[in-house]
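WARN no homologs supplied; continuing
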Amino acid sequence: MAITSHPHNPAKDLFPVSESLLIDSDAGVQIHARVFGEGPPLLLLHGHPQTHAIWHRVAPTLAANFTLVIADLRGYGDSSKPQGDADHGNYSKRTMALDMLRVMQALGHERFAVLAHDRGARVAHRLAVDHPAAVSRLVTLDIAPTLAMYEQTSQAFARAYWHWFFLIQAAPLPERLIEADPAAYIRDVMGRRHAGLAPFDPRALAEYMRAMALPGAAHGLCEDYRASASIDLEHEQADRDAGHKMSQPLLALWGAEGVAQRCFDTLAEWRRVASDVRGQALPCGHYIPEEAPDELLAQVLPFLKAAA
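OK structure emitted
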């Protein structure tokens, strides 16, 4: 798999000492990743509607302890945004997890820990299930498993997570509406949560807006959600039916002011799919790495260092 330098190095000012790379995954797909730090390998994955830039406040401390690989998911940021398949399989979390396995292997990391937020945590869940020899331990931020969240959808959840049901509509309706004003989509989706836009560094917000305006970005994030409402549910149901659980230690963290706290028993749901689970709520909303970086570091550093 080829590795090349990203010619533009997006968000360089948020990660001034890092290297910005494009790494081949499957045919025609490249994953953008930022690499720096010293120590055991740690893969960081972002959520919607963001990019790898979400980690800028915690990355310096993490990089003092780990070799960081901070990636943009397929369909997001500066990673490739292929046209979705009829069954959305090329945006399934299984496929997106394989992207990340290939990235880590290309960089020489056969076994690694994962810290992942939101959509990235769904990819990390599948990565840990499908490739247990590769993932040593896992931290998920502000999600419950996808199947549980769809099964337990309530009016409160549907109102708060309206985008789950908007983005899965057939193309090109949601894509067309997002593409009409990508910056407004970022402001509205992120700004209507617990803390508004106040927690976000203006440089990070500018990066999210830049990335959302890239060709194919709206389609990529819609396909991510379409896959989660279809093929991803099939994969999680198959795991449940087979009694297949994650074996790695799992730390589940979520925002005390977020939807995971209000609508789900997050620890109980993770214990249905993993055998070694601990976790708690943190004093923030959904965007934990940007809203509560110090509290996040206090939880994840001891957990991740145990693997090292």
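The beta strands are 3-5, 19-24, 30-37, 41-45, 67-71, 112-117, 135-141, 250-255, 277-282.
OK
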